[in-house]
Amino acid sequence: MKNYVVPATIVNTIFLGLLVPVFSFSLAPIPSDPASFNSWAHANLVSVRNRRGDISNLDPALVTAEEHVVIIKVRNDGSGQFRTVTDAIKSIPKANTQRTIVWIGPGIYKEKITIERDQPFVTLYGDANDMPTLTFDGTSRQYGTVFSGSVTIYSEYFMAVNIIFENSSPMPKMGSMDGQAVAMTIAGDKAAFYNCRFKGFQDTLCDLHGNHFFKDCYIEGMADFIFGDGKSVYLNTEIRAVWDQGGVITAHGRTSESETTGFAFVHGSISGVTTGKTYLGRLWRDWGKVVFLYVDMGACIHPEGWIYYGEYRNKGPGSNLSGRVKYSKKLKDAEARPFLDLNNLNASAWLLPPPHLL
Length: 358
Fold this sequence. Notes:
single chain, 26 strands, globular, disordered N terminus, Pectinesterase_cat
C-alpha cells in the first residue's frame, strides 16, 4: 500500500448513508449500552431453525444450505478426517450448496489457505478455550499485498468462529516497501466473524470487498492493519497497536463518493504502545470512509487522530477531540445512526449466529 493522497475535496463526503435496506424486516439497531449486547444478539442473531418459519427475508440459497449441515473434522494429530485445513477445503465440492463446517482442532496449522468463489457456505470453527492458529509467512514481496494472506476467502456466506488468523512474517523495518503481510483477506460477500483473532504487523486484515460483520474479535498490527474497500461493522472488537514508532490503524479504499462502502467500529476498545502514538486512519484511496462509535480509546492514539474520518461518543484518553486535525468531524446523532443499523449491510438476508458444536 503506497502513493496515498489526501485531497481537500474529501472533507464532508464520508458521512453519507449506507445502502438502503431491501427487506421489510429490520434488525434492531446496535444498542448504545454494552450491557444490552447479549439480549440484543439473542433477539437479532437467530439461526434458521430458531426463526420458527419466519425465513421470508433470508436468501433462499442460504436457507437451503442450512437445512443439511456437513461437518468435516481437521486434527493435526491424525484423529480427524484430515490433518490439514487445505485438504479439508479441497474436499468441498465446487458449487457447494450445503453449510460445511470445517471443525479445526487445537494447534498450529502452517498453511496458505484459499477458499474459492465457487465454495460458498463454509464455516471455519474452533474451540473458544483452545483456539487453533492458521498461520503463514507470506509477504508482498512474494505474492503482492492482497494475495499474501495466510487465509484468503473469495466465496459468499463464509463464517469463522474461534479462529486465530496470523501472518508470522517478522515486523518490517521502517521505510520498507515490501513488508506488507496479510493474515486474512476477505473478498467474498456476506461473511461473519465471531470471536476471532487477527495477528500481524503491516496490513494484518485485508477487508477487501463485500458486506462483513465482526463480533467480539481482536485485531493487532502496526500500519494500515485494517484496510480495503469492504462495507463492514466491527462490533465490540479489540484493536491493539503494536508499533512503538506510531502507525495507522485503518486505510479504507472507497473510490468514489457514490459508493456505499466503509468501516464502522462500534463499541470495543483501542490500546497499544504509547511512545509513538497511532493514528485512527488515513485514506487508501480518495473517498475512504471509517467511523468509530462508542469506542474506548486508549492513550496510544495520536492527538490529531486522523489523516481523516469521523467519531461519535467515544471515551477514554485517546478520544479527546481538542487536538484533532481541523478536517475531522464529530458526528451528530443522525449522521451516526446509519452505522449502528445492520440493515445497511442487508444483514437480515444473510447474518446468522455462530454454530455451537461443543
